[in-house]
From TrEMBL:
Stored Gene3D superfamilies: NADH Oxidase (3.40.109.10)
Origin superkingdom: Bacteria
Protein name, as recorded: Oxygen-insensitive NADPH nitroreductase
Pfam families: Nitroreductase
CDD domains listed in its UniProt record: NfsA-like
Family of the protein in this entry: Belongs to the flavin oxidoreductase frp family.
InterPro entries hit by this protein: Flavin_OxRdtase_Frp, Nitroreductase, Nitroreductase-like
Coiled coil start-end: none
Domain Nitroreductase: residue ranges: 9-159
Keyword Flavoprotein belongs to the record: yes
Keywords: Flavoprotein, FMN, NADP, Oxidoreductase
Amino acid sequence: MNSVIDTILAHRSIRKFTDQPIETTQLNAILQSGIAASSSSLLQVVSVIRVTDTEKRQALAQYAGNQKYVETAAEFLVFCIDYQRHYQMNPQVKPDYAELTLIGAADAGIMAQNCLLAAESLGLGGVYIGGLRNCAKEVDELLGLPEYSAVLFGMCLGHPDQTPELKPRLPAEVIVHENQYQPLQTERIAEYDAKMHDYYANRSSNQKQSSWSEEVTTKLAGESRPHILGYLNSKGLNKR
């Protein structure tokens, strides 16, 4: 259809990279693409920390669950909610509302996706690292985040050294609703489960016998980082 859509539809998470660095002009273009992203009311409440220090990279890889590619990727970016600069401009700012935390998380996702798409359009690859929130407090301290600023996720970027299979997604009939919320089409889920079972069993690495429904319901049935609310509250966020 066009090169932008082709890039979007060809997305794969890359977790293995060559030793080749990303050119400065490319990195600048990637970051500028992120900065150009939509921002709620132009609040611009996201900060990005580029981590180049080797020891910090090693620590972040451990905090994220021993994800080695955090250490070895050409670039590692950490996306943070950031109301500190707004508070410094005017102490009457009230960053502790839950709505502002939602805005920060949404804007960070939009900015990061712009960065990743820009990188992929240049022939690079990457992967999101939500595992940083496993040790949010430790990551926060390592990166010296001030009050009203909190870590959300990281992103590895580099030259791909793998070509993973394209992971199937839920069909549009399940995700897209018209005019009002529609009942779940269980037959569509069953069809998708069969497709994902085949994908999991035959992909080039980490094969397993499972379906999408089994994977996600198992994950959602357990605790999901229960320390996060306390962490956000400790940073002056999401209190009311």
